[in-house]
Design brief:
Rossmann fold; 4-stranded antiparallel beta sheet; 6-stranded mixed beta sheet
Length: 248
């Protein structure tokens, strides 16, 4: 069953067509990777899906509902959630407080991060359980500013998961993380999503991670989808080898 579908989705910036009639579909529980060279339109495409940008033309349908014109927060509460390349966590809150803020946002019981004293016990229990799921429970009372960058990336994802997404979009989930820690992060994500029916769409430049964790891969270049298929099919495509992987 399709969770999200785009039809001829297009975004123009003056004479530049950053996303060019993009047709895309992702189903419930599916894990899809997006690859492409710098400037291919990957982030613009994601910005259109999440409401950061409005399309010039085309449609976005999420769970049967057309999203064109819908604001970012409405999409997030409907289950279309994004985790950013640069973690967007509050350094002045502890890990458990960060996750609880996401839970309260989901429940629409909180419009500010400054209502910590009014948070209910049930949100704390759920937050700790999520932190445990992602291997961060032992740091739950640490302030976010004090934890390593890799753990902050995981915390950002944990907060996104707290929104109970139907589709979670990850923008380079391992960027800036030491090579030896990348697989640990992806393994934690995979372990969680194997027990969830959430669909996952992730942008990634590391082709090894794409090969190991994506079930399906979409390659973009110059705003267009050039191929959509299994990791093996896409990564061995001659155009992908030349334009994206840098092979002659």
């Amino acid at each position: 069953m399709s969770v999200l579908e785009t039809q001829k989705l297009t975004k123009e910036f003056g004479d530049l067509r950053a996303v060019d009639e993009m047709d895309f579909e992702i189903g419930s529980g599916e894990i899809v990777g997006i690859i492409g060279p710098n400037g291919a339109g990957k982030t613009t495409f994601v910005n259109l899906l999440t409401g950061v940008l409005d399309p010039t033309a085309g449609d976005i349908v999420f769970n049967g509902r057309q999203l064109n014109g819908s604001p970012v927060h409405d999409r997030a509460r409907a289950g279309l959630v994004r985790s950013f390349q640069i973690p967007r966590v509050c350094d002045d809150l502890t890990l458990v407080e960060n996750v609880r803020s996401a839970i309260l946002s989901r429940e629409q019981r909180n419009n500010s991060l400054f209502t910590v004293l009014n948070w209910e016990n049930d949100t704390r229990a759920e937050a700790i359980a999520l932190l445990d799921e992602f291997g961060l429970a032992d740091q739950q009372e640490a302030y976010a500013e004090a934890i390593p960058h890799g753990d902050k990336k995981i915390l950002d994802v944990c907060m996104s998961v707290a929104m109970r997404p139907k589709l979670l979009i990850l923008d380079e989930p391992t960027s800036g993380v030491a090579t030896e820690n990348k697989y640990a992060i992806m393994d934690r994500l995979q372990n969680y999503f194997e027990t969830s029916d959430s669909a996952v769409l992730f942008i990634e430049h590391d082709m090894e991670l794409i090969a190991d964790y994506a079930e399906r891969v979409v390659a973009m270049d110059q705003g267009r989808k050039i191929i959509d298929g299994s990791p093996e099919e896409v990564l061995e495509d001659e155009t992908v080898k030349q334009r994206i992987r840098g092979e002659e």
